[in-house]
Amino acid sequence: MKVGVARTYAHKHFTLSSHTTHIHTALFGSTFADEQFVNWSLAGLQKSGDEAKPANSALVRRLKDVALAYNVQTLWAPNPTQFNGIITDRSSLTEHIPLSETISLYRGAYADGVELGRDEALILSTGGCPLITITHDDHAIAAHAGLKCLFDFDKPDRKSVVTNAIEYLDIPKCRSGRPIYVQMDFSIHPDVYEHPWDHPEWGQKNEMLCRELEHRWGPSVLVGDRHHGRIDLIALAQQQLLTHNNCVFSTSSTHLPPVRGEDASDVHFYHTRMRSPYNTMRNLTVSARV
Questions:
Q1: d(Cα 202, Cα 79) in Å, to the nearest integer?
Q2: Which of 56, 58, 229, 285 has an alpha carbon within 20 to 30 A of 221's alpha carbon?
Q3: Mind giving me the DSSP string for 123-135?
């Protein structure tokens, strides 16, 4: 990866390798170059022509820098705002947004993840929702894994993004004996991801949610005093994976620092539980297959 990109933005980087499949995951947040805070939201890039709008010029330049850093030419960016857990076919991402003569962004489907080909990347603008990457043999899926993607209390029978990813890969028909490698990165820290049971408006629903999570996947999904409702999204996904055979869950899976943003100098990465205005700003999450 080109060093300049890492020096310019707050940055974390990991590598996941399994046989012939190699994935680089990265998170880009605020800038180190000056005192401005960079918002990586992709909301302004929805269709062809948006890349030419003056308001998007800085974001387009930054996305090109990231693509060049990871030597990818295709950026897949499904819209994850419905938290539906869907792994979409690449053919459904029909909105072609050219960022340069050689780098293309594709949007157009409401989904959380996509299968990655070589020299391709999934990009997401995130506010604490983790990235999950699953590899098996020569296949790789990367996906947004927010709480409702893992379990939607209002739609409890809907499959999680974990199950959808494994079913999309059709793993039972894949080569037997090969492990399924799974890594989760950049999750909001449970210390700040609270669902307090005494909240004046949401307390009852928070308690019901936490009890249901404990009932289905055990006490490890909550950290500390359960009445605070500190949900650990990485632990939740890990428990869901126990129902699938031959999964190897990476020990390097990571949480973001538990920063609330009271001191702006501490704001390197954003999450939705920060104080305003950082709670409305977004990081760029990248999963690049090389």
A1: 27
A2: 285
A3: EEEESSPPEEEEE
Residue holding tokens 């819209």? Answer: 79
Instruction: Please say whether the beta carbons of 267 and 277 come within 8 A.
Output: no
213 is a domain residue: no
Residue 76 within any structural domain of the chain: yes
108, 50 Cβ separation under 8 angstroms: no
- 3-state SS class at 163: helix
Helix, strand and coil content of the chain, in percent to the nearest 5, comes to 25, 25, 45
Q: How many domains, the chain?
A: 1
Q: Output the domain CATH number for residue 270.
A: 3.60.140.10
Question: In terms of pTM, does the model score above 0.90?
Answer: yes
From 190, 73, 66, select the one nearest 124 (Cα to Cα).
66
Cis peptide bond upstream of 257, omega within 30: no
Average pLDDT over residues 4-21: 61
Q: Quick count: other Cβ atoms within 10 Å of Cβ 17?
A: 11
CB 144 within 8 A of CB 161: yes
Q: How far apart are CA 218 and CA 152, in angstroms?
A: 17
Q: Which residue's entry shows tokens 């704001």? A: 267
Q: What are the backbone angles phi and psi of residue 139, rounded to the nearest 5°?
A: -115, 150
Share of the chain above pLDDT 90, in %: 70
Structural Rg of the chain based on CA atoms = 19
Question: How far is the first Cα of the chain from the last one, in angstroms, to the nearest whole number?
Answer: 11
Mean per-residue pLDDT of the chain: 89
C-alpha of 152 from chain center: 17
**What is the residue range of 24's domain?**
3-193+232-289
Residue bearing tokens 């390197």: 268
152 has pLDDT over 70: yes
Length of the chain: 290
